[in-house]
Design goal:
Elements: H1 7-39, H2 44-59, E1 61-71, E2 76-85, H3 96-105, E3 109-111, E4 132-139, E5 142-152, H4 160-206, E6 217-224, E7 232-238, E8 244-251, H5 255-275, H6 279-293, E9 300-308, E10 313-319, E11 325-327, E12 333-335, E13 339-340, E14 354-357, E15 363-367, H7 369-372, H8 384-393, H9 399-414, E16 423-430
Parallel strand pairs: 10-13
Antiparallel strand pairs: 1-2, 1-5, 3-4, 4-5, 6-16, 7-8, 8-9, 9-10, 10-14, 11-12, 11-15, 15-16
Helix pairs in contact: 1-2, 1-4, 2-4, 4-5, 5-6
Length: about 425
């Protein structure tokens, strides 16, 4: 004889099954709604707001937070915080200890009594936090974020069903959030590239648009930045009495910071050239201005000379710059070393002058250390000796041909090695 269950027990079992099925339908509805909404958007903030709202509804919680994190091998750094609250409660903060726990365990976490939980001794919780449920956002086995909800509305603890559902939501959402984050990063990168491109154009506009024309002289210059913008600088500054100031400088660093300092240096030198044509005096004042307007770790090397095309002389001063080559038509040469320290190191710094003469066929080549220090794959520098030999053997060429030849040989020496520093070179040759 088969024993039958009491009617009351059967009804209870049936009611439990109905509740389970109803919850399953609700969960499927929430997940389907969530998938539809987040699949139609690429806006990271909008996606996270949607996920939090659906999560609060799913587990009947007061407040939720998504924190995207990045592992820098030493600490977890919060990248984005998005918060939605269903009440006027204060904003709760995800404690670093929870992030650390999630980073180590990568599984759902329920904290029923935060103040008394032995796993988080010493953690100071926000006032009003009664219970917490955290689930990880995992992408390719790596923690990319944490979804956290606070305070179940009925005053009860979060249930295993709540954990399971929130874990499903996080698993469904993690890759979508990661994709949205990558899209936002790509947009930011594109904007930055556009700004760098604009900076490069501005920098090119600051340089002389064409080689200067001086009767009896062949003058040319060229710069090749290691990045889109650089810290090398050259200029031709005609004076009211027919002389020509020539300068070539190299500011510390590379990229945008160096380009900003380069623009500052150019403006300073142009202003000082109008005040004094004596190189040592010009560098003295420029150094003082540069020291006062830059941070202590910033400095610049500079060769500054004033060419007199009538008397065929040049007064120069070298502020710690790579020594230029003054090569006579007969092959004798001299390195131009007279001057002083780099600009910007000390506020009070004196510089010395020296005068050189230009006979017919004499050549002056001013280069940045991006040429002499260019390295090949064996970590061998191009070096001053190789540059000297190249200039001596080809001193009969025009200024622009000498520059092209030097740059070609530097690139040949470097081979496949990436250009590590800005390359700038100027040639001044007396033709008659």
């Amino acid at each position: 004889m088969i024993e039958k269950s009491p009617p009351s027990q059967s009804i209870e079992l049936l009611q439990d099954e109905v509740r389970r099925l109803r919850r399953a339908v609700d969960e499927l509805s929430i997940l389907n709604d969530l998938a539809r909404v987040i699949g139609a958007s690429t806006n990271g903030e909008e996606i996270m707001q949607t996920i939090i709202r659906r999560s609060l509804r799913a587990v009947n919680a007061d407040q939720g937070v998504i924190t995207l994190v990045e592992d820098d091998e030493q600490s977890m750094r919060t990248l984005i915080r998005t918060r939605v609250s269903s009440a006027d409660a204060p904003e709760y903060h995800l404690h670093q200890a929870l992030l650390g726990w999630m980073h180590l365990n990568k599984r759902p976490l329920v904290v029923d009594a935060p103040q008394d939980d032995p796993r988080f001794r010493g953690v100071r919780w926000d006032e009003g936090v009664r219970t917490v449920l955290c689930v990880p956002l995992i992408v390719k086995s790596e923690l990319r974020g944490v979804l956290t909800v606070y305070n179940k509305k009925d005053g009860q603890s979060f249930t295993p069903d709540d954990q399971r559902l929130l874990a499903i939501i996080s698993a469904q959402s993690a890759q979508v959030i990661e994709n949205a984050r990558l899209i936002e990063e790509e947009k930011l990168y594109i904007t930055m590239q556009q700004e760098v491109g604009l900076a490069a154009k501005i920098q090119q506009d600051l340089l002389p648009h064409k080689n200067i024309s001086v009767p009896g002289y062949d003058i040319s210059a060229r710069t090749i930045p290691a990045q889109s913008v650089g810290g090398d600088y050259y200029d031709f500054i005609p004076t009211a009495d027919g002389m020509l100031a020539v300068c070539l400088g190299d500011v510390s660093g590379k990229g945008l910071p160096a380009s900003l300092l380069m623009a500052n240096l150019q403006a300073t030198l142009r202003g000082q050239t109008l005040v004094s044509q004596r190189p040592s005096e010009c560098l003295y004042r420029s150094n003082k201005l540069l020291f006062r307007s830059t941070s202590p770790e910033k400095f610049a090397t500079l060769f500054y000379g004033v060419l007199d095309p009538v008397h065929h002389t040049m007064n120069y001063s070298n502020a710690g710059h790579d020594w230029p080559f003054h090569i006579a038509a007969d092959g004798t040469f001299k390195r131009l070393t007279t001057g002083g320290l780099m600009l910007g190191l000390l506020e009070e710094c004196r510089f010395d002058d020296e005068q050189i003469s230009f006979a017919s066929g004499d050549l002056l080549v001013i280069q940045s250390d991006g040429i002499t220090e260019a390295m090949n794959r064996h970590q061998e520098e191009f070096g001053g000796d190789l540059l000297r030999g190249l200039l001596l053997a080809n001193r009969h060429l025009s200024a622009s041909d000498i520059i092209d030849l030097v740059i070609c040989e530097v690139r040949k020496h470097a081979g496949a090695s990436v250009q590590s520093d800005d390359i700038t070179i100027m040639a001044v040759k007396r033709t008659a």
